[in-house]
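Section: Multi-chain targets

For targets with more than one molecule, the full set of components is provided together so that the structure can be written out for the assembly as a whole rather than chain by chain. Components appear in the order listed by the source. The example entry contains two components.
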Amino acid sequence: MLFRRIYQFLIVYSIGLISLLLIKTALSLSDYVIPGFGLILETFQEVFDTYFLDAMNTMSVTVLGQCVSIALAFGVGIAGRRSSWMGSFIKVTAYNIQAYPIVALAPIIFILLGDGFISRLLIASMICYFPLLLSVLGIMATPVEDIEHFYIITGRMRWQLEVKIRAFENLSKLTTVISGSATLAMAGTIVAEFIAANAGIGYSIRVALYQSDLAKILIALFLIGIIISIYQGCLETLGEQIKTRWSVSKGGNPR
Amino acid sequence: MHLECKNLNFTYPENDVPVIQNLSFLIKNPGFNAVFGPSGVGKTSLAKLIAKMDTHFTGTIVTQDMDIILYSYNQERLPGWSGTGSHLDKVTPEGKHPLKDQLIDIFELKPILRSRFSKLSMGQQNRINLVRYLLQDFDLLIMDESLANVDEKLRETIILSIKDLFADKMFLYISHNLMEVSSFCREILVFGKPSGNKTCSIIQGRDYIKGYAPDKQSLDRTMLEIMNAV
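Its structure, encoded as tokens over all components, is:
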């Protein structure tokens, strides 16, 4: 799964790069507009170390932001799963808030909290939180009647058991949603860095943009892509392992 | 102990046509009873009303001396993270482990206790499911096709054992097997076809117990009575 993600990214990136080089050749564009392959390689050697650290910096905020949003989404999703007044209120509020473009709130966050780590973390979490919340809410609010019936009618049902049943039955869906939300968290962090932060790969892209240096931007995109592919691949592999262990070890062994 | 329905009416919210209309019957004393009738006449709906899973009905349901009513059906599943044996251990109340072992023997479940529920055949799944209900405290257990896909010989053994082991409990067995309900059930609540003008009637079954000697003539008579009532 991990390698498939990397291959897929490398193929897409190569197609994009080749297309750019073809456009450059076809329209006889200068290196200033679209750099040649040699210049891209040269820039790669020049900025790789700095950009790699920047990308890792962004990645750390992404991972942390995603963890925060997963925790929040599960907390709110579990609280809002009931068909009670409070459950409905949480669901309606979540659906309405997610309709608002969170990126538009970024300037307010930067004004209030400055351009440091917390602002990036907050924006990353907020961007990945709502789609995650909607999926978790959907999963947690849908009863698995053929399993839950026994526990309900015998009075054994507890909220922890209900959450466990619904999470287990939707493990593939949850894994996909969580690994998909990694991209959103990364996008959130980069957008935050792009707008006003003073660190990270988004900030480096902003600097490269002001310099009109497409080679640097291409290298930044390569690093972002490869790092997020590895991260998503790891998340998917982890999800698969959790699913296998959860069902096989307990199912195969009665005690 | 008695179960009585008086002028029961029930319509599903999304439907205009009532599933149950003016249903009245009385089943007294513990025993193994059946609900019989064609598909769509409201057997499962009635079971759910009796089990208090739905309260949107008119009329009265009296469940005298029956505090715990359980409803089991044939498509239930066990949680996927747990082995069947492990699950049975977990849901067996304190002091009922000897009964659990006895039921495992009767239901021939020993070879599959280490298996995952999803890997079992439908008959095995239904047997495991029914055992866990029998291990709970109950006064009335509604078995909605709970022995579907179980082979006939084993089904007979299971029913006779249930009657023997739980003689002080009331059962409502929903089944489409005419021979089975006629042979083993005490009272059979027969629903008429929805299109016909027949309503609901109670017919006395043969109520065979362990070691019975089948009386073909009276069994045929009971089956005929049921068929006429449908």
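The beta strands of chain B are 2-10, 20-28, 31-36, 57-64, 69-73, 140-144, 170-174, 187-191, 200-204.
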